[in-house]
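Lab meeting notes turned into a lecture example. A postdoc, R.K., suggested we walk through two folding results consecutively so the class can see how the record format repeats. The first protein's sequence and structure tokens come next.
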Amino acid sequence: MTSPAPISLVLASASPARKKLLHAAGIDPSVVVSGVDEAAVLDAARTTYGELAAEDIALLLARAKAEDVAAQIDHAVIVGCDSVLELDGEVHGKPASAAEAVARWQRMRGTAGVLHTGHWVVDTRDSDLGGTGATLGATASTTVHFARLTDAEIEAYVASGEPLRVAGAFTLDGLGGPYVSAIEGDPSNVVGLSLPLLRELLGELGLLWHQLRASGIPT
């Protein structure tokens, strides 16, 4: 019997944490970083729809990234993601400076925020190879409780440089892990990609997770 054609999964993100998550779950994606101007995408959406909820911002940017890469890549399944932190009704991405990261952590310590990650999937495979042409997505949200850090701990963490590289100015799987006291929801979502949600989205394309693992992609 003829083996099914390998399924190429493309991650439209430069995030090493997202790639590491997929790899640990048995999938080794190709990476193609989008050239999307996030500020322009958000400005255009706000002009049309007005102010956007945090979860809608994450989904909008994930879609823009996935569809930008999909326009360049044929015969693949493209996954775009974007994460934002909602804190006291305000939306935060990566801090623009060390001073901003320090100020944000001074607000975050001892409180809780919601980490929203938008996921968007585009299927550019040929129909005779099972492609659907679908473009679909959803947002996963996880509540994150932050520890009561001292000023010295905040300054040392920001000095490491990590908070400047990640949405929300913290990580769960890196140097920031000790500063997260609890989470409510999917932990992989906090890292940047909800594995359970991605499994569901791929299922809507008729793809099962184990098919991706068994399709010749190294693990």
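The second example is placed directly after the first for contrast:
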Amino acid sequence: MLRIMPVGDSMTIGSAGEHTWRYRLWQHLCTTYDGPFTLVGPRQALHDRTTDAPTSYAYADPDFPRGHLAGWGEGWHHMAPLIEEAVRAHRADVLLVSLGLIDLGFYTNPEQTADNVRAFVAGARAANPRVRTAVMPVVTNIRVEADASFADQVHRFNDLLAKTVTDLDAPGSPLLLVPPPEAYDFHTDTYDGTHPNADGERRIAGAFADALHQDWGLGGPYSAA
């Protein structure tokens, strides 16, 4: 069975009442992937905005595999120390990673964030030398309109991320840079300038799905569900 671990921040964990891009991708793979698979990870909860904590399990579909490694307000800075144990314990084959916005906003500059990407990849490979990792560049939010310095940091990090992915890609453990979601617009694809609404969820899921299909032959072309 193919074991896929979504890794991310608030855009990946999602909140109570949301489907999340994780769910949209699972729906897609259920109809296009020709083998058994599941989503895995040490966490299962959604973020509950009433408690400001990951305390909700109000998923819309009881059959959805809830496993993930995502957290509200977490980034490469937080996940790099956790990924080795998570991959080992949950026997992950594929990592789908969307991180960086939080790092650049609060914790690290672009160069330090790129160093954490390298630490993350090393940790994942220490647990599974054949793990495949698909990484999405930072998807911008409304802050880039008001903060030119932050916008520059995002651009700089995404450039460094592309170089890091190229440097670390290996035949036995491929590292894939996922093209940003096509036509994603934080004005219309989020509910608050950052967190994806239903359209945003589909665009992010579609970006991962199409990359998995085109580069690794997993599943098929994305069709929004």
